Amino acid sequence: MIIDTTELQAINSFSKLESLKEVYGIIWILIPTFTLVLGITIGVLVIVWLEREISAGIQQRIGPEYAGPLGILQALADGIKLLFKENLLPSRGDARLFSIGPSIAVISILLSYSVIPFSYRLVLADLTIGVFLWIAISSIAPVGLLMSGYGSNNKYSFLGGLRAAAQSISYEIPLTLCVLSISLLSNSSSTVDIVEAQSKYGFWGWNLWRQPIGFIIFLISSLAECERLPFDLPEAEEELVAGYQTEYSGIKFGLFYVASYLNLLVSSLFVTVLYLGGWNLYIPYIAVSEIFDINKAGNVFGPVIGIFITLAKTYLFLFIPIATRWTLPRLRMDQLLNLGWKFLLPISLGNLLLTTSSQLLSL
């Protein structure tokens, strides 16, 4: 069988074209991912700086001011310092669990950012089960903390890991019930659909006004999930030295530090998406979304304004957990579990039943 040279050239050119398409496809997948990771990194640095400045203002002292203008580079300097510090391993601990634990905590939280819409259709993965995927992924993080505590071969660390697991289980259930109520109101579990459902009635269409009880429960549960004061029992320094972080040093300790702020940022972003209208902003008599064409495809300026509105709402909301840290005293472990199981769980169940009943009556 004789094959003409022109046919061979056509086959070679087709195969080259297909390989180029595959390369371009991989590049177009990686570019949004790296852009999102870069944005998250900058967002975490801004949160650390904001917390230090707000904390300094509350305590009437001077915050960071030497590392860069207004001390904005202080968090970056701390990260570089931890990067060059020595990593110590417990002599009788489990080295594999000790090393894997911080990575699981960070990766599970990073994956949650894939379903957050920052503007109209500007989301890494618009899934129909977006909010529940976030809950499922975020529930893996306490496993990493438990592994870290067990692998440290330290009683304080192990107690901190057990507390983290118990706290996460106790407060994930009310959190999930609140998210389920929002899904019922929006008739969808997609984060994009939830934001668009709130845009129908402007400012008064936000789920903050339709679900005030759910918003309060979500706020308390997210504070507990992020292990923020008054719920920082897993790392209570007066009782457990530093909890599951006791034996860690260097970049592994830095990963726990980053994970806590990543979790705080993702929780605030979900509050913005679920309760505060996402990228839509309505000033009385002025619809900002319509002026800048945020909800129109093909417009470049609109998505930029949408990202700015989403981040502005997120960082304004962050003032609440930062101020709470210096306002409320730490709870005891029994008080924390009682609050989750005896109060938040029944109230969130009642809120879900009321939401379901109202949706059935409106049919």
Task: Put the structure in a nutshell.
This protein is an all-alpha fold. The chain contains 15 helices and 2 strands.
Q: Can you offer a commentary on this structure?
A:
The chain has 363 residues and is an all-alpha fold. It has one domain. 68% of the residues lie in helices and 1% in strands. The protein contains 15 helices and 2 strands. The chain has helices spanning 5-58, 74-83, 95-112, 130-138, 141-151, 155-186, 191-198, 207-210, 212-225, 237-240, 250-275, 288-291, 301-317, 319-325, 333-361, and strands at 282-283, 286-287. The chain has a two-stranded antiparallel ribbon. Strand 1 and strand 2 (286-287) form a beta hairpin. It is globular and about 60 Å long. The model has no long low-confidence stretch (mean pLDDT 83).
How many domains in all? 1
Large-scale geometry: globular
**What is the H/E order?**
HHHHHHHHHHHEEHHHH
Give the overall pLDDT as a whole number: 83
Approximate helicity band = 55-70%
Largest sheet: 2 strands, antiparallel
Terminal Cα span: 70 Å
User: Which strand order does the major sheet show?
Assistant: 1-2
How does the helix and strand content classify structurally?
mainly alpha
Number of helices: 15
The radius of gyration over CA amounts to 23 Å
Number of strands: 2
Low-confidence parts: none
Beta-strand percent range: under 5%
